[in-house]
Amino acid sequence: MSELKRCGWCVGDSLYEAYHDAEWGVPVYDDALLFEFLILETFQAGLSWITVLRKRENFREAFDDFNYHKISGYSEEKIEALLQNAEIIRNKLKVRATVSNAQAFIKIQEEFGSFSDYVWGFVDGKPIRNMVKDYKKAPATTEISDRLSKDLKKRGFKFVGSTVMYAHMQATGMVNDHEADCFRNNEVSQFSR
Length: 193
Fold this sequence. Notes:
Blueprint: H1 14-22, H2 31-44, H3 49-54, H4 56-62, H5 68-72, H6 76-83, H7 92-112, H8 115-120, E1 128-129, H9 143-154, H10 162-171, E2 175-176, H11 183-189
Parallel strand pairs: 1-2
């Protein structure tokens, strides 16, 4: 049996490969999962994704299974406890941003009916398929991620620069940036709402 052809960025690390094979680029419409990816991406800002991925379960435990309703009401004591938790990334600004982002997330749900409807509106509800030949040549930002970032910042979100938002779009399948010859490219294109 021949080895599966994967995107070059994940090859050689079993956790990375499992994430690539099962999750990366699959369209996500569930608000809870969109929030989880949003939080993980904001913690990733300035770091490598594998660093965050290795701590994902620790984040899930520390942040009440990414329950944005609970997170939006975190007390100062809870925030301080998170800042003492060596199992997560203890960046004070990012921890505090998680709380304010949860609050802003809920406001978007109230305005648009769901965060999913809001965020997918930036791509007219359909994934963009880029047919990237080499992951190193995939864009870090696009005009759409620029607009999304700007709008989220206007709504009070933090750590949502265009690069972070483009990575979020890739992770949640708003764009399919699997390399053209990756076995997942065609597979994730079959997913629809």
